[in-house]
Amino acid sequence: MGKTFLFLDTITNKVDSKGRVSLPADYREIVKELSTNIVCYRSLSAPCIEGCTEELLAKLASEMESSLDFFSQTQDDLTNLIFGDARKFTFDSTGRIVLSEKLLAHAQITDSAVFVGKGRKFQIWSPENWAKEEKRIRAEIAKKRPSLTFSREGN
Amino acid sequence: MGKTFLFLDTITNKVDSKGRVSLPADYREIVKELSTNIVCYRSLSAPCIEGCTEELLAKLASEMESSLDFFSQTQDDLTNLIFGDARKFTFDSTGRIVLSEKLLAHAQITDSAVFVGKGRKFQIWSPENWAKEEKRIRAEIAKKRPSLTFSREGN
DNA sequence: TTGATTACCATAAAATCCCATGCTATACCA
DNA sequence: TGGTATAGCATGGGATTTTATGGTAATCAA
Predict the structure, then answer these.
(1) pLDDT at site B80
(2) Largest interatomic CA distance in chain B
(3) Can you spell out the DSSP letters for chain B?
(4) Cα A102 to the chain's mean position, in Å?
(5) Which of residues 55-94 of B have CB within 7 Å of strand D?
């Protein structure tokens, strides 16, 4: 059934005055392969845009579809937040999507966007925020698992 | 197999003196794709209009038929309310539906309508009420999952 | 016939598509 | 191995299509 796919790598592309960005070629490949679409929304936990396949969101929707959930208040709140914010993004023949003003503002992106693969999902950051975030993550990891650090050349 | 479809995004359109509103293009696409209809009714829990595909209501109806659980009586009452209130809305060649006085009044909509995607369903709010509601939801979610909140400075 | 509802036309703005160009990484050949 | 051809990708700009929305005509019911 579900084909395996992973959003990987970290790629920086330019955002032009119309808000257009090239979706990394590998991501486009996934979309075509699964004949699905890309869906993006403001991350709830960080100043970045989050993206995934429409498929993944649809699965979420199906789980909330049963009659037991039809009238649930909490479900209602959650779905409003997620689906109300998310939007489908189709790319043109040259592989670009147009990010909305709302998303760009949330991620503080102006003229460059960093795509960061996260497996089933991916994130889009401004170069500045991503630099900070990456540093934070590495520091966090180093703190939690000092045994993993073996060379200092990276930092 | 049910095709995947999702009502997404938050879109504000004008309501003219006749009660006409453009159904967002993406929503129209879904209706055409599934060759179904849009059904709207007064929300039972909020001052807004709720909408979904005719298909979904049909599914809800069959689930109620076979549901024997403890709460079925209550749910039965709720579905009665919905089915009694719901009406089919077809859009014209320019993509507009005409909302009834009853629905507009319930949602306190005068000259602008905010469509909020909820996955299999969507809601229609007045801009004022939606602003309040969105604030309420975000506060609610933040309370329940404080780990999700972030500060703009980046900690 | 009159009031109300529904269908159709027109226009401006916005979103989308497509062509052309430059760049980069890989393949290929001497 | 080094230099060059090639294919794929990113990006700029302009043409085209869609969409929202105001207005008018046609249809229906009382």
Answers:
(1) 83
(2) 53
(3) -PPP--B-SEEEEE--TT-EEEPPHHHHHHHHHHT--EEEEE-SSSSSEEEEEHHHHHHHHHHHHH--STTHHHHHHHHHHHHHH-EEE---TTSEEE--HHHHHHHT-SSEEEEEEEBTEEEEE-HHHHHHHHHHHHHHHHHH-GGG---TT--
(4) 15
(5) 94
A63: phi then psi, degrees, rounded to nearest 5: -65, -25
CA distance B110 to B127: 10
Over residues A88-111, mean pLDDT = 95
Q: Is A108 left (phi over 0), alpha (psi -120 to 50) or beta?
A: left
Least confidently predicted of A95-109, A123-137, B50-64, B119-133: B50-64
* Domain span including residue B14: 10-144
For residue range A75-92, list pLDDT tens digits in order. 788 888 889 999 999 999
Burial of A42 (0-12, 13-18, 19+ CB in 10 A): middle
Answer yes or no: is A44 within a domain: yes
Name the E strands within A6-153: 10-14, 20-22, 38-42, 49-53, 87-89, 96-98, 112-118, 121-125
Given an 8 Å threshold on Cβ–Cβ distance, is A84 in contact with B4?
no
Question: Which among B137, B147, B155 has the least Cβ separation from residue A77?
Answer: B137
Q: Please report whether residue A80 resides in a domain.
A: yes
List residues with CB under 7 Å of strand C.
Answer: A 18, 90, 92-94, 96, 98; B 18, 90, 92-94, 96, 98
- Whether B151 maps to a domain, the answer reads no
CATH code of the domain in which A128 resides: 3.40.1550.20
User: What pLDDT, on the 0 to 100 scale, is given for residue B148?
Assistant: 46
Is position A154 within any domain? no
Domains contained in chain A, number: 1
